[in-house]
Design brief:
mainly alpha; two-stranded antiparallel ribbon; 7% strand
Length: 120
């Protein structure tokens, strides 16, 4: 890993992602301008992953889960399709989806539909 970025706030600070040339979209449900991404948190720029407040405003638990998923995606890109890493990433994606099923996350779910792509 050459670079790790951290951010905390109530509005996604995506200036650095914009400088990288990541495709963005205005999504009020996620707090404003946010990056398009795959379910594995890959952006439109190869090897640039996103998690937490840079991917949209939610809360700490989802930010941590996204961080773990993005980290596993990076590890899989480096190591190759390691069975244990792939299984753990899917487990965490399942936890994240389960967490977002709560009624209070309806708005977030609607926002994610606008920014999640199948792949690049």
């Amino acid at each position: 890993c050459d670079l790790v970025l951290l951010a905390v706030g109530l509005t996604p600070d995506t200036r650095l992602l914009s400088q990288f040339g990541v495709q963005m979209r205005w999504v009020p449900e996620l707090g404003g301008m946010v990056p398009l991404r795959t379910r594995y948190l890959e952006t439109s720029v190869p090897n640039v992953l996103v998690a937490g407040d840079m991917s949209g405003i939610e809360e700490a638990t989802t930010a941590m889960l996204e961080g773990w998923i993005a980290g596993l995606t990076a590890a899989i890109k480096i190591k190759g399709k390691d069975k244990e890493l792939l299984e753990e990433r899917e487990r965490l994606i399942g936890l994240l989806e389960e967490y977002r099923r709560a009624p209070v996350s309806r708005r977030v779910r609607e926002g994610l539909k606008k920014v999640t792509v199948e792949g690049w």
